[in-house]
Specification:
Length: 354
């Protein structure tokens, strides 16, 4: 293991990264609160400012994936459609098998310039996450409790609000509704059997209502559905912890662009259409497990420097007061305080590395 790789695994590096992320996040949340008085006066400007602020936070995790761990996602897609990515609004349908699937999505958002405005249909609990959840509130993320009667009106209203969104956005929908596990797969295949639907091997049975409501309410706003199928080479099981430790992963993403007009309007037909889409996605995953690749030409959109510049900027800005504090601590001459600080860091390091 080289020195750089060793350093990436050290507690002190992790401490600096997490400190930068959370403190910059809190400052960004504060700036977002400051935009509140602007909303009734100039809503579109307030939204644009929030997109930039959102970018400044989200891109730090993208920088961690792209620059710290060196992970490059390979895209399999039609070159004609490639020209359109980032230039139109889209609903993204993505499988939900991996701990870092959202990060792989974000890296594409970054490369196609829609990271600040990217959105998701997320469970309500995520809106309470400090920093990230609070930021999403200002980015008009759509949250659901997964109790349809309670969600219905808020869900529709949140989608309608996006009709005049001033920046291009991608709206991520994990139609499976939860991350894949063997147990959830077994239960959902029982449902498939009851409904006389073909069994899926690599996916849970998709929940269809959210997709139908999103498509219906975003007609005229969104140009296409991007059907995205993600997998990792060599049966890798990527984790956020691995990314933080600088581990490099090898994701492949297959993207098909489906014009929104081609999706049926009727609920039952739309639902059948989505089930068919998942049967196709399942076939792609099965082929991937046999051949190690998806259909179509490969391309790796170029990495842009902005995520790194933003990350380094925040780190320098926030390390400065931390260093001042440490200098003051040493100058204070209090052996007890110095020893308590060293003991805290050592204990943190031991705990972190267990
Ligand atoms: C080039 C481009 C490349 C890449 C870009 C990729 C991505 C980047 C884009 C954006 C990124 C932005 C942000 C992302 C960042 C972080 C967020 C990450 C993750 C968040 C993840 C989540 O929070 S997932 C959880 C929340 N989401 C969902 O739940 C969505 C899916 N669910 C739905 O849509 C549901 O329909 C619903 C919740 C809206 C409503 O559900 P409900 O159950 O009430 O209704 P349904 O009709 O859907 O289902 C009822 C029927 O289902 C049957 N049933 C029962 N049990 C099961 C089962 N186990 N499996 C399947 N079906 C089941 C039941 O029988 C009912 O059938 P009926 O016939 O009786 O209707
Ligand atoms: C530079 C520092 C980088 C630190 C990176 C931190 C980034 C944090 C981003 C948090 C994004 C959280 C996304 C979580 C995805 C998720 O939680 O999905 C939930 C679904 O499965 C449904 O769950 P379930 O309740 O099990 O059905």
């Amino acid at each position: 293991m080289g020195l750089v790789q060793w350093l990436k695994g050290q507690f002190l590096c992790h401490l600096v990264i997490c400190y930068g992320f959370f403190v910059s996040g809190l400052l960004i949340n504060l700036l977002q609160i400051c935009t509140l008085p602007l909303w009734p006066i100039n809503k579109q400007l307030a939204r644009r400012i929030n997109c930039k602020l959102g970018y400044s936070l989200t891109s730090q995790s993208v920088a961690l994936l792209e620059w710290w761990s060196g992970t490059e996602v390979t895209l399999y897609t039609d070159p004609e459609n490639y020209q359109l990515y980032g230039k139109e609004n889209a609903i993204v349908v993505l499988n939900h098998n991996f701990e870092i699937d959202f990060l792989c999505g974000w890296t594409f958002c970054e490369r196609f310039g829609v990271l600040g405005a990217s959105k998701c249909l997320a469970k309500k609990e995520l809106s309470y996450l400090p920093v990230i959840g609070w930021m999403w509130y200002f980015l008009e993320m759509v949250f659901i409790k997964r109790k349809w009667e309670e969600d219905k009106s808020n869900f529709v209203q949140s989608l309608q609000n996006l009709r005049d969104y001033p920046e291009n956005f991608w709206f991520l929908l994990h139609c499976e509704g939860t991350r894949f596990t063997e147990e959830k797969h077994r239960v959902s295949m029982e449902v498939a059997e009851k409904k006389s639907l073909p069994k899926l091997k690599h996916h849970l049975l998709p929940r269809t209502k959210g997709f139908w409501v999103a498509v219906q309410n975003l007609r005229g706003t969104v140009a296409a559905v991007y059907c995205c199928t993600l997998n990792f080479r060599n049966n890798e099981t990527p984790t956020l912890w691995g990314v933080l430790n600088g581990e490099k992963y090898h994701p492949d993403l297959y993207v098909r662009r489906i014009p929104l007009e081609s999706i049926p309007e009727d609920e039952a037909e739309c639902s059948a259409w989505l089930h068919k889409l998942y049967q196709e996605k399942d076939k792609f995953q099965e082929d991937y497990s046999q051949t190690g690749c998806f259909p179509g030409p490969k391309v790796t959109p170029p990495r842009r420097p902005w995520a790194l510049i933003n990350w380094l900027g925040w780190t320098c800005l926030l390390l400065y007061p931390l260093c001042l504090l440490l200098v003051q601590l040493v100058n204070s001459g209090s052996i007890l305080t110095i020893m308590a600080t060293v003991a805290f860091c050592a204990a943190g390091g031991c705990y972190w590395n267990i």
